[in-house]
Amino acid sequence: MYINISMINKLKYLLLVCLAFFSCEGQEPTAFSEEALNDTFINLEGQEVAFKDILEANKGKTIVIEVWASWCSDCLKGMPKVKALQKEHQDVVYIFLSLDKSQEAWKRGIEKYDVKGNHYFMQSGWKGDFGSFINLKWIPRYMVIDKEGNIKVFRTTEADDKKIKDVL
Q1: For strand 63-68 and strand 93-98, is the pairing parallel, antiparallel, or unpaired?
Q2: Which of 2, 14, 133, 135 has the fewest CB atoms in 10 Å of its CB?
Q3: In the beta sheet, which residues pair with residue 156?
Q4: With a cut of 70, which residues of the chain have pLDDT below it?
Q5: Which among 28, 94, 88 is positioned nearest to 63, based on CA atoms?
């Protein structure tokens, strides 16, 4: 059987590319991209706020972030777990980023479901710079940021996930 050296080199290259891709796939970021940090949200007063300013306002504190929407049944089913987490970890800052369809629906949802924490409307939506950075495909989505500003939990869909409890 004749083996072409060029073919072997191509296969080696393909294998190397695949290994690089799949080995990086499992790694989760520990810091936000510049694009995500510069994405803007709307606060309850109707002002635009860059994500980096939201983090800066809570510098030195542990932060739990939930991406949610008042129309999301899984988000609403998970609210008792969020409230239990808040009761157990009162020293943590809770930031809620809403994917509601309108600011009015977002504000009604906060009131209707008595969601306690810091609230922002994700005007850039699922595919904006922040949503793209976190590879947002499902809500609710929880993240934990430590006191130094590092992402400690990048992806979970349950507020009572062991990863969250271990970090807090």
Answers
A1: parallel
A2: 2
A3: 142
A4: 1-26
A5: 94
Sign of CA dihedral 20, 25, 30, 34: positive
Burial of 7 (0-12, 13-18, 19+ CB in 10 A): exposed
Number of domains, the chain: 1
**Residue 19 has what pLDDT?**
47
**Does some domain include residue 5?**
no
Which residues, 6 or more positions from 131, have their beta carbon under 8 angstroms from its beta carbon?
67, 122, 124, 125
In a domain, 40, yes or no: yes
- Residue 132, exposed/middle/buried by CB under 10 A (0-12, 13-18, 19+)? middle
Cis peptide before 140 (omega within 30 of 0): yes
What residues make up the domain containing 103? Answer: 29-167
Q: What is the pLDDT of residue 5?
A: 62
What pTM, to 2 d.p., does this model score? 0.84
CATH number, domain of 122, equals 3.40.30.10
Asked if 134 and 157 touch (Cβ cutoff 8 Å), the reply is no
